[in-house]
Backbone:
């Protein structure tokens, strides 16, 4: 259980307010925010004074009015207080949501996105995410997957801000998944590997947003923008697999003045009731949730009495989890300091005050298989303890002890199987991510490069070359030749006696064959080959006079290792060439890591 955390932030006076010689009516002290109604004369006490100055307490009150004053709260400070919590939540596997609420021009976009050189929460969060990923990957051997999507809701319709060729602009459908809840159908999701990937997407999305805004009469102040990061983290934690998924929503809401349906001007009325629907519903949802939590401990009454109208708008439906559900949620209410905005500012402060009462139920989103593995392991530990006890009181031969032992073995086998399944699944994810069947891991001071596919490792005769080249030999054909070949070559090489179309590798059902083309110079383990010849684990291949490779077949190697273990194969018989006398790591290349 966790309440929605609420921060209020006041921006500097803008040009218009200064031109109107507006007076500042906002005062912040600690986490308190006060607003003064200048229409009520000063100098009274009691009731009247309470009407003149209203004070609210939030989790944070951020004074960003004057960058030269001492209580000034910068973008960095906002990120340190709020953004780093969201970051922590992401790494712990919780969902999180930050939404900015306030009238148009009060600083929502500034707080969420920021200006060039003065980044807001979203870019700072993403940068922090990748900084931490880099640090964790280095020390923990954890792996990560991050996906970004960015959408806009305008007039109850959803638009993908990251779709490049968008002919149909505003009509993505919102659907409901039986387990995962509401989602936007066909919303594009973009894998991101580093911060600059995110930056690029963010920029494209923002441009998309403002372009529509100028051509369509200030859409951006009337639309809600939701930037979402799906973040998966997998690792082995003392040999126990762990996988968590968290969804982070960062939301820049439409100007709150649009929520006030009664105050709609003629122009806005013409656009129909839709324009405010999401914001009005958000208000209703917040009210309902606040009422619910204030009903106190009486759970029965609570459930019957309060209906939360999530389904009434697209925004609330999509953010259902963030409001009263499985999420750590933060609201930032932004306000103007000027007396000319008294009405709107007071209503924002009240809104924020109500949001404080929402209680969420964040839980760690653990992969279901991983949870099962953990439960089984606990059960194994329990059974083992029981067996030890049984041993002590000489119960071991009794039928109970036997069945217990049986159960223990069953559980252990299941854990092994599940762990293997999980590892495979995660490896697969990682492979798709990298589009390669490669994994790097540390071993002592070395770095081991693992691959599951048959591959060639370049053995370069150039003393000055330091990189390591690995070519995968995928199922099917891999062509090797020069750049100037008339057909496209999969592996491009240069060097003495290398033909433009030199040879091809055929990988069929796990059998890899080298096929020399048109009399090209190919040799395997020092023997010239002119016909197709099947390759075995560890073979050394020379193409032309200078391109030398070691052929690795990880699956075959694994089988050979099994045989060696059971004594069918002697270590000696595995040594195929002088270059591969060590059979310890047949499918892996050890790179010496001097650091
Ligand atoms: P909104 O998104 O709520 O409509 P903006 O974020 O676009 O409002 O802010 C309106 C203007 O005020 C922008 O020019 C923005 O740069 C400026 N602004 C808002 N908040 C601050 C702040 N805390 N410090 C400095 N400038 C701000
Ligand atoms: Mg804005």
Residues:
């Amino acid at each position: 259980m966790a309440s929605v955390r609420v921060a209020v932030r006041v921006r500097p006076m803008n040009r218009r307010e200064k031109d109107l010689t507006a007076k500042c009516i906002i005062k912040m002290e600690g986490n308190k925010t006060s607003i003064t109604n200048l229409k009520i004369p000063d100098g009274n006490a009691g009731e009247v004074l309470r009407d003149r100055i209203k004070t609210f307490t939030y989790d944070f009150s951020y004074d960003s009015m004057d960058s030269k004053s001492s209580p000034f709260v910068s973008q960095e400070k906002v990120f340190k207080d709020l953004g780093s919590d969201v970051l922590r939540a992401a790494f712990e596997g919780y969902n999180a949501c930050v939404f900015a609420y306030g009238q148009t021009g009060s600083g929502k976009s500034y707080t969420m996105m920021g200006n060039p050189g003065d980044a807001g929460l979203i870019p700072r969060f993403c940068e922090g995410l990748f900084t931490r990923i880099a640090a964790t990957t280095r020390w923990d051997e954890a792996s990560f997957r991050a996906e970004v999507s960015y959408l806009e809701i305008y007039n109850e319709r959803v638009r993908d801000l990251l779709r490049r060729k968008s002919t149909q602009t505003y009509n993505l459908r919102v659907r409901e998944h039986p387990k995962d809840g509401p989602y936007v159908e066909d919303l594009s999701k973009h894998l991101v590997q580093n911060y600059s990937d995110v930056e690029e997407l963010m920029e494209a999305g923002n441009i998309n947003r403002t372009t529509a805004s100028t051509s369509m009469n200030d859409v951006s102040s009337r639309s809600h923008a939701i930037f979402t990061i799906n973040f998966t983290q997998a690792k082995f934690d003392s040999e126990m697999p762990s996988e968590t998924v968290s969804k982070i929503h960062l939301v820049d809401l439409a100007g709150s003045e649009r929520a006030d349906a009664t105050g709609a001007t003629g122009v806005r009325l013409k656009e129909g009731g839709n324009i405010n629907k999401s914001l009005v519903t958000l208000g209703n949802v917040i009210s309902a949730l606040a009422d619910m939590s204030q009903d106190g401990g009486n759970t029965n009454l609570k459930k019957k009495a309060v209906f939360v109208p999530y389904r009434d708008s697209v925004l609330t439906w999509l953010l259902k989890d963030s409001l009263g559900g499985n999420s750590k949620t933060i609201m930032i209410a932004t306000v103007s300091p000027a007396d000319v905005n008294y009405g709107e500012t007071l209503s924002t402060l009240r809104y924020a005050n109500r949001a404080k009462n929402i209680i969420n139920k964040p839980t760690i989103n653990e992969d279901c298989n991983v949870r099962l593995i953990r439960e089984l392991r606990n059960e194994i530990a329990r059974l083992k303890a029981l067996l030890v006890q049984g041993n002590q009181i000489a119960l071991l031969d009794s039928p109970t002890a036997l069945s217990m032992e049986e159960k223990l073995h069953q559980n252990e086998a299941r854990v092994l199987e599940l762990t293997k399944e999980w590892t495979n699944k995660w490896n697969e994810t990682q492979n798709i991510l990298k589009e390669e069947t490669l994994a790097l891991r540390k071993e002592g001071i070395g770095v081991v490069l693992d691959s599951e596919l048959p591959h060639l490792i370049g053995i370069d005769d150039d003393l000055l070359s330091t990189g390591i080249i690995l070519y995968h030999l995928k199922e099917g054909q891999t062509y090797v030749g020069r750049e100037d070949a008339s057909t496209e070559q999969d592996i491009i090489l240069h060097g003495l006696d290398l033909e433009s179309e030199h040879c091809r590798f055929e990988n069929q059902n796990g059998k890899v064959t080298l096929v020399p083309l048109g009399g090209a110079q190919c040799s395997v383990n020092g023997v010239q080959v002119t016909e197709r010849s099947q390759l075995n684990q560890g073979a050394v291949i020379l193409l032309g006079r200078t391109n030398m490779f070691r052929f690795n077949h990880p699956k075959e190697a694994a089988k050979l290792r099994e045989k060696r273990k059971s004594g069918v194969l002697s270590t000696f018989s595995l040594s195929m060439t002088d270059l591969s006398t060590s059979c310890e790591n047949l499918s892996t290349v050890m790179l010496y890591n001097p650091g």
Observations:
- Residues 399-434 form the longest helix (36 residues).
- The two ends are 45 Å apart (CA to CA).
- The chain is about 35% helix and 25% strand.
